[in-house]
Amino acid sequence: MKIYLRISLLAAMAIVFCGAMHGQDVQSLIEEMNVRHIGPGAMSGRVTTIDVQRNRPEVIYIGTASGGLWRSESGGVEWEALFDDEATQSIGALAIAPSNPDVIWVGTGEGNPRNSHSSGRGVYRSIDGGTTWELMGLEGTKNIHRIIVHPDDHQTVWVGAIGTAWGDSPDRGVYKTTDGGHTWEHQLYIDERTGVADMIIDPSNPDKLLVAMWSHRREPWFFTSGGEGSGLYVTHNGGTDWKKYSDDDGLPAGELGRMGLTISPANPDVIYALIESNSTALYHSTNGGVSWSMIQGNQVGNRPFYYADIYADPSDERRLFNLYSMVDMSEDGGKTFRTILPYSGVHPDHHAFYIHPDDPNYLIDGNDGGLNISRDGGKTWSFINNLPLGQFYHISVDMAVPYRIYGGMQDNGSWVGPSEAWHSGGIRNSDWQEILFGDGFDVLPAANDLNTAYAMYQGGSLSRINLLTGDQTGVQPVQPDSVALRYAWNAAVAADPFAPDGLYFGSQFVHHSTDKGNSWTSISPDLTTNDSAKQKQAESGGLTIDATQAENHCTILCISPNPQREGEIWVGTDDGRLQHTLDGGATWQDHALDIKRFPLGAWIPQIHVSSHDPDEVYVIVNDYRRNNWQPYLYRTNDAGETWVRLVMDGGEVTGHCLSVTQDPVTPSLLFLGTEEGLFVSFDRGTNWNRWSHAIPSVPVRDMVIHPRDGDLILGTFGRAAYVIDDLAPLRLLAKEGNATFESPLNVFQVADAYQVNYRRPLGARFTADHDWEGENRRNGARVQFYVHPDSADAYGEDEMLWAVLDAAGDTIRNGGKDVEGGLQSMWWRFDTNGMQWPGREIKKKEKFPSGGGPEVLPGMYRIAMNMGDHESSISFEVLPDPRVPFDVSAHQQRDMHRRMVMNEVEPISDAMDQIQRALATIEVVKQEMKWLPDSLKENASTLTDSLKKALLDIEEMYTEPRDVKGTGSVTERLSSVMWGAFSINGGDMAPGGNAIRALQRLQQGGALFCGAVDELMSSLWIEWIEVVGAVDRSPETLFEASGQQE
User: Fold this and answer.
1) Is the entire prediction scored with pTM above 0.90?
2) 2, pLDDT greater than 50
3) Residue 77: pLDDT above 80?
4) Could you tell me the residue ranges of all domains in the chain?
5) Residue 583 predicted with pLDDT over 80
6) HEC profile for 606-670?
């Protein structure tokens, strides 16, 4: 008796369906787009604040400059982002309530006011350990630098607001709540430019706090630290009354700047203050602040505006840690320091520090390059390499296959990495290559050479780099006269679209090169206002000079050649000039005055010239550096004659504008990056939708749509890079509007797909949980389709039929799925219909063929989807692996051989299924043998045991015994012969002698196996049926009773 019951081996399935969209609104469509966070994580980004659960030291929380709030519950091994659903990702302060670790307070807006810092949206509270958050007010503060929670009452909190650095604001100083943030008392306020630089609490007296107030101002062209408002204050009654210390108490006389404070938990009478003044120095008090004295001023305070933090060891009042460009430690109360974190090994520029109060050897350091942990008091450190906090200023792509992504990060160099990695697993940190260090900005891949790129660091230090050898050539323009060139912190560079070796570079002039930067010609006059009052960056800093070129002004920020008209160039400056030439630079026109309600003098960081219409130009303007936080995006359709503003304050778009791009295929599709995330428009900017899926409210500094692949690549300032795969659904919506989603079924354009083998990644196979991996693109062709929800309701299980057809129209792969409404996707991995493999499970009947058949050859294919009377299809191309030559004949021979192998396996699979059916039937019959007459029971039992043993013996010809113990076997079985025949047939070459012999061995082994099954089923099986026939139910009926029926 032969019974055939099909099973489905999941390993053979090559089509995977993803979740569906319900509803027709834009957000639902966005939620089904494939967004990949690709990192990298290796160089991380600026960490601003750290706290740890005291009784669970493995639970670490960190806040970052613009990458959100993160938690590790494994001592830094794994991390989870906690703040992605909130309005901002800039974290200035965090504090865990000592009396209840589930209560956490977060102040938004970084408190280190460098030129590129971000601002926030107020103070937040969580009462469930960071899972959910509630905004508790103080939105006007913009930047919060310190939070202290009362040690015994988590409802009582002090918030230290440093406030915005860019203008006057009354929302500064110390705020206090005693009701968990529902109401606030503004306890300490000095003036509109003085905010909290530091705030500490006496561990022995929670009513005693010390606060460092700092008067400072950042302008686009200058920074001033110090002023009359600066000072050190103390309260002894929880903030009701305050006393200001003076030089009479031992503090330095004259104007003061930023201060860092710490109090010794080992002896709260000992307080240290790092005070910026005309003679910056470290001070201390040994009587709780009644009087102060200077310790020394030789080894402290090199950049107090950026870091002025000191920390006292909780067990030793004489041990101090001083954070600045490096980290120093003193063990004699600050008289002398030694460096424990030099420039090498750990990233410099330190802002956050944590010392565990019960284990002073447990240290955590946060700096411009991420997070480091020490368990031995600072002798050795481990770097946390799985926090993707990179702050990209720019992003660009090349035309490699797969394309590569380039960009420069704040204080973390310039990098190149893959958009997808053709190896197993995710995109690793090791897939990224640093090509230049320093503050990284724009990286420009050479147009005609995939091994060359241009990268720069601050001050316009532009280099041409060989990506293979690392050879670096400085190509910064050298002016032929004595005029000093002024470069922006983030200088402008652009490719000449009409010359493969052509470059544009911006100082106050536009420089043009036709020979890869070896020589330059200035093609413009000074295009800025050239205001001498705003060119005093060498004096910037206030009490402490800090001239790092971050305040360079009257410079060019962006250069945008028109890709359709040679000689037409648009230029934006940092002092509000919007310059335009039509003749290669001979004459220029400033269009800023032509734009109504344009904020004159504002920053113009990006200009996008349409690839559809040479007269259509988009201009990004931001003016937050002058305390104007409105979003500005303008468009002209007539080369600058008239302009329209596309975003307004109070609309859907939030955060000042940073970047814009227009889809090169569908002109009405626009993407806008702001300080608070990504926005999309389907009608050329008339209406905007927030991108709420998989991308947090992080600054989107730059973005580009790949011209070949149709992906949107984002360079974020805080969460590294993202890729939104395949914009086809959005393009169709922008082109056809809602009609796109009114049809019952719609298959979108499928991107051409490469048929490649994935190698094993470089480095270790078993990386445990610590290493970062960005999300890789899946191998295969991705098909996106839309089902109208109303249509979905009319159909049910497995009524969505799909098929892949070759160029001749023949179906090579087909299947079905349940009908669901909305946008969905499926993957085809280039396989054909296959077969069901031998196994110990009884085959289940399938509605559709299994996959796993031989892969197709490169060529044109069509995916067709059918739902009742509704059908939609699209053609696309499968391309060969570009890394190796493609031999059509070899691949045809390989596929033919593989089908021959499959033809041999199919009868083996059927024979194995007969064995499984017979064994299942025996088990049921054994339960029913009690009904046999006594005269037959013994014989039936003996025969049943003999039959079962015979079946298992034949089964062992194919695979391992069922009761085997241990691992491994020296016995070669048919299954290993079968899989060997398949593996030998891999690769790009035609089958050779090995493959032919493997097939022959499979044929021989299969014949023996199938013959043994046939022999058994035609002899012993029939005899057994006759003996057990006295059972009231036949073996066939019993088999059905076993639940194994077909």
Assistant:
1) yes
2) no
3) yes
4) 10-24+753-880, 888-1041
5) yes
6) EEEECCCCCCCEEEEEEEHHHCEEEEEEEEECCCCCCCEECCCCCCCCCCCEEEEEECCCCCCCE
